[in-house]
Design brief:
Helices cover about 65% and strands about 0% of the residues. It is an all-alpha fold.
Length: about 90
C-alpha cells in the first residue's frame, strides 16, 4: 500500500523569473574570446629553433619512409594481381 504524504501541498513553488536580465553583447563575447586566446598563448612554451628544425626533419623523414612503404606495397600488389589475372 502506498504511503500518503502528510506534508501540506505547495501552492506556487516556482520563483518568479526576472526578464530584465540583458544578454551579453556579441562583440563583447568575441573580444573576450580573443583576449583569452592571447592570454593562453602567453602561457605556451615554444620550442627553440634547433628543436623545431630537428622535429621537422624527423617528421619529413618519417613521411618519406611511409611513402616508400606504401609505394612498395602498391607496386607489389599490382604486380601480383597482374601475374594472377594477366594483363
Amino acid at each position: 500500500m502506498a504511503k500518503k504524504n502528510n506534508l501540506p501541498a505547495k501552492k506556487n513553488s516556482k520563483k518568479p523569473v526576472k526578464k530584465d536580465k540583458k544578454k551579453a553583447n556579441i562583440f563583447k563575447k568575441i573580444g573576450r574570446f580573443f583576449k583569452d586566446v592571447v592570454s593562453e598563448l602567453k602561457k605556451v612554451t615554444w620550442p627553440s629553433r634547433k628543436n623545431l628544425i630537428s622535429y621537422t626533419v624527423a617528421v619529413l623523414v618519417f613521411v618519406a619512409i611511409m611513402m616508400a612503404v606504401v609505394y612498395g606495397i602498391d607496386t607489389g600488389a599490382a604486380a601480383f594481381i597482374r601475374a594472377v589475372f594477366g594483363s
